[in-house]
Amino acid sequence: MHLAPGNKMISNGSDSLLYPFWNRLFSFNWKFSLGLALLICIPRFFLVLQANEIGNYNAIGIIMVLSALTPFLFLTRNGRREAGIVSTKRWSVLLSAFAAGLGFAVILHFSGMLLYGNTESNWYNYIGRSYRLPENTNDTDKLVMFAIFAITGMSFSPVGEEFFFRAIVHTGFAKSMNEKKASVIDSLLFAFTHLAHFGIVFINERWHFLFVPALIWVGAMYLVSRIFFYFKEKATSIWGTVICHAGFNLGMIGAIFYL
Fold first, then answer.
1. Sign of torsion, CA 44 99 149 72?
2. Does this model's pTM top 0.85?
3. pLDDT in tens, 97-113
């Protein structure tokens, strides 16, 4: 047994965690989580690359919705509870989580500017291209676009990615190892998945691999993933990591628009 969010003792058996149909096919362990991660992350990786090339990101929204639904498709109520999909009233932790995510995003912005300026080797500069912001936009229109991007960025990907990586995928790994090792693995999966967002870049109708900037970006994504998980533990709920992720996305979008 081990302590789940809320300090409840949960059995290491997977019988009550997966729905009976899935339980007949799989054991809820590292093999399940790795297989699920590959099933979602590999198509997502190539869909993001394609979206960066053609400028159509509709498929990414579908992937985020599917990712958010995976705990509900596979896990029983007990399984979702063990994965941290429970409410929390630790408001001060949630506030700290939001501030930490926001602060990390701002630091990452200034790091990119210091190292690479307004070049394509700057992660936020490249990612900002996907927003396709018109030039010479007036302040009111810019604020409206910022609000749209901020609202979607603080909802779709934080819920989709955290319910996937820090809930169901993490918990499957944690069934076979301790929480810290499981966090290392889900953070690595998260980080390398984001290599499609920056690192492998489409510039002037050609693909490029920016080795050093990509290494920094993947390292940053790994580190922020560990921070996300820290706040899941502090909040004893997945909402700690969702709120931290939302803060990070707001900071990134704010930096792209205004810094």
1. positive
2. yes
3. 999 999 999 999 999 99
